[in-house]
Design brief:
nine-stranded mixed beta sheet; six-stranded mixed beta sheet; 34 strands; 14 helices; alpha/beta
Length: about 675
């Protein structure tokens, strides 16, 4: 309470006593008991009335006991039903919820997880994917500063997401193992790597990784089928020590369009689960030849890196000329790369503008920006005679084409003249500049599309270091070459940009969500959020037709479709009220990701428990887990005090006391004839 308020309260007390004294004792010779009672009533009533008018603030302290939270993370995926553990999960959950001792010590929170996490309502055991890492991470973020042990009811088998053994958890985790823990002989295709696109009459690489669990040596055979015909086969032998194989082969793209393949490894004797012996994959075969011209004024390692990256796709070829020696025609090439541009490029740039040719401009310390700025290409740089190192940051909102992050922010910086980039036409930023750790809004790699001409500008030299760094990180040039390939594929295509672009996978496992993403623009190719989009899906075998609307999410349209049966489908995405459509097809296989496991992953669950300070238990060890939770002294109740400020005028009962005091005074005076 403030000093001024205390002084007012004292003054109110003095004033109330003074008024009562003046009324009942001033010039009164006789002081009987009735006058004393009336004096007290008058003093109190006036004081309380003045106190309400002063309205002081009073601090009220309340104490609250906060129990530690026990997070019950329950696996709700299909693998639980595959192991016939539905009743075990329900019984364990009921035991935790109904146990009075556990409830007395903990505040229990029930959470179900599959590919995502939600508060428990009812079990379904229909999740087509399991992401244990995400579930543990979300619980850790939710109770980061609190005491919250985690009980994980799961078989330990994860199908998507990061490895949960590397989750950074500040809480103790107690896995409860569900599912069969017996080790059976099992042969499976664990991973299949293939490019999404190939060119006709070209061979595309395929890598298949296989694993074997068992002690005895076994023989098997790998087959790859297309339209029911074997296109590749290989005999294999596995032992308890030589239990993994990596097979790489090249398949010929003989037909144009979307082609489906099946990889199968032959069943071995005693194998319980054969559903993980097969994987389906698809490749879209494109009938396209691309010739690229690279014009340069200097010799630089970037030239070789760009040439090798582009030519990693056998359907593309690169011809390199110094600008002084080029005498050919630009019209013979689908894409022109300009390197180290200076005034010697004047005729070539004039021809590019005249023919509306697609090109990439790579600038650097040798570039003449005074000359480039005069060419009216839609971009300028106010460069000074000083160089700067520019790091790269991927723009996740880039919509021109799909590009994954291959570690751009870890790549060495590029070198270019220092200056501000000024763009005078519409563009998309694929990579932004990062100067000494500071992210800027300036583009490092930008794309332009105007009047059916496609352009890209890379503001920096030294991209050869990126290719080398990518190889050191992944032991392969594939990621970098695919990045350059995506850029070249977009720029080299003379296809007019569609106002409606649709993205979806071509192959889905059974019971998985089919997700469509659509990007629709107006006639100026600006995103239009006013449209109404609808997808029509047709089962090619049953001819059943389903229609689903799109929802507007951020700067794109999206729809998710669940519970489609296995089979081949065709789709049509249409803009309502417009004659704008996109067509395609996809396939849902019989393969269930959650059924690829033969047993619970006790090794990883045990490692998770050890690393986080918890313990692993089996489903019949509820009492042991209960004892651990109840006797662990690190799980304790916290007493928290809360101070609240309340105004006296909020205490309505004081007003009733004031009225009662005044009333009592009046009745006593009336009774004794003093009125």
């Amino acid at each position: 309470m403030q000093t001024s308020t205390i002084l007012l309260v004292i003054l109110a007390l003095i004033l109330s006593v003074s008024v009562a004294f003046f009324q009942y004792f001033f010039r009164e010779r006789r002081k009987d008991k009735v006058q004393i009672v009336l004096f007290i009533l008058k003093s109190l009533s006036i004081f309380l009335l003045l106190l309400l008018l002063i309205n002081p603030t009073i601090n009220q302290i309340t104490l609250q006991n906060i129990k530690p939270t026990l997070s019950l993370l329950i696996d709700d995926s299909q693998s639980i039903s595959f192991f016939n553990e539905q009743e075990s999960v329900k019984n364990l959950t009921t035991k935790f919820i109904n146990d009075s001792e556990i409830n007395k010590k903990f505040d229990i929170k029930e959470l179900l997880f599959k590919s995502d996490v939600r508060v428990k309502d009812s079990f379904s055991f229909k999740g087509s994917n399991t992401n244990i890492y995400k579930a543990l991470e979300q619980v850790n973020n939710l109770y980061k500063e609190a005491i919250s042990p985690v009980v994980l009811l799961s078989d330990g088998n994860q199908t998507i997401g990061n490895d949960y053994n590397f989750v950074n958890s500040s809480q103790n985790i107690y896995p409860v193992v569900l599912g069969d823990t017996t080790k059976y002989k099992d042969l499976k295709i664990s991973q299949l790597n293939v490019n999404k696109y190939s060119y006709i009459k070209n061979k595309f690489p395929l890598e298949i990784l296989m694993n074997y669990e068992g002690k005895q040596a076994v023989n098997s055979k790998l087959y790859i089928y297309k339209n029911g015909k074997v296109v590749f086969s290989k005999r294999l032998k596995f032992t308890d020590k030589d239990n993994s194989k990596s097979i790489t082969t090249n398949l010929l793209s003989s037909e144009k369009g979307l082609q489906y393949y099946t990889a199968t490894i032959q069943k071995i004797d005693g194998e319980k689960n054969t559903k993980n012996n097969t994987k389906n994959f698809s490749v879209e075969v494109i009938d396209e030849q691309t010739k690229v011209l690279l014009l340069t004024s200097v010799l630089h390692p970037d030239i070789g890196a760009i040439k090798k990256a582009i030519e990693s796709n056998k359907q593309r070829s690169v011809v390199v000329f110094t600008i002084d020696k080029f005498k050919g025609q630009l019209i013979d090439y689908q894409l022109v790369v300009l390197f180290g541009v200076n005034n010697k490029f004047k005729n070539s740039i004039n021809e590019i503008k005249k023919q509306n040719s697609n090109f990439i401009l790579v600038s650097g310390p040798n570039s003449d920006w005074s000359f480039i700025n005069q060419q009216q290409l839609g971009f300028q740089k106010n460069a000074i005679n000083q160089t700067e190192n520019y790091g790269a940051i991927l723009n996740k909102g880039f919509l021109t084409f799909s590009q994954k992050d291959i570690g751009f922010n870890q790549f060495p910086p590029l070198l270019d003249k220092f200056g501000e980039v000024v763009v005078s036409k519409e563009y998309q930023t694929l990579l932004s500049q990062n100067i000494n750790g500071l992210e800027t809004k300036q583009p490092l790699l930008a794309t332009f599309e105007e009047n059916n001409q496609k352009t890209a500008v890379l503001f920096g030299e030294g991209i050869w270091k990126w290719r080398a760094n990518s190889f050191l990180s992944t032991n392969s040039f594939q990621d970098f070459d695919m990045f350059i390939g995506n850029l070249v594929q977009y720029l080299a295509s003379n296809k007019k940009r569609d106002r409606l672009e649709v993205k979806t996978e071509r192959l889905f496992p059974a019971n998985s969500k089919v997700i469509f993403n659509a990007f629709y623009t107006d006639q100026n190719f600006k995103f239009d959020n006013r449209a109404s989009l609808e997808v029509t899906i047709t089962n090619t075998k049953t001819q059943e037709v389903l229609k689903f609307p799109f929802s507007l999410i951020n700067n794109s349209y999206q729809t998710e479709i669940e519970n489609l049966p296995s089979g081949d489908y065709q789709y049509k995405v249409a803009v309502q009220g417009q004659n704008i459509n996109q067509y395609g097809k996809f396939k849902i296989t019989d393969f269930l990701i959650e059924e690829q496991f033969t047993r619970a992953n006790t090794e990883k669950l045990l490692n998770l428990a050890d690393r986080t300070g918890g313990k692993m238990y089996y489903k019949d060890q509820f009492e042991d887990l209960k004892k651990e939770l109840l006797t662990n002294t690190s799980y304790y109740t916290i007493q928290k005090s809360t101070t609240k400020e309340k105004n006296l005028i909020d205490w309505k009962w004081i007003l009733f006391i004031v009225v009662a005091l005044f009333s009592a005074e009046w009745f006593i005076r009336k009774y004794h004839g003093k009125i």
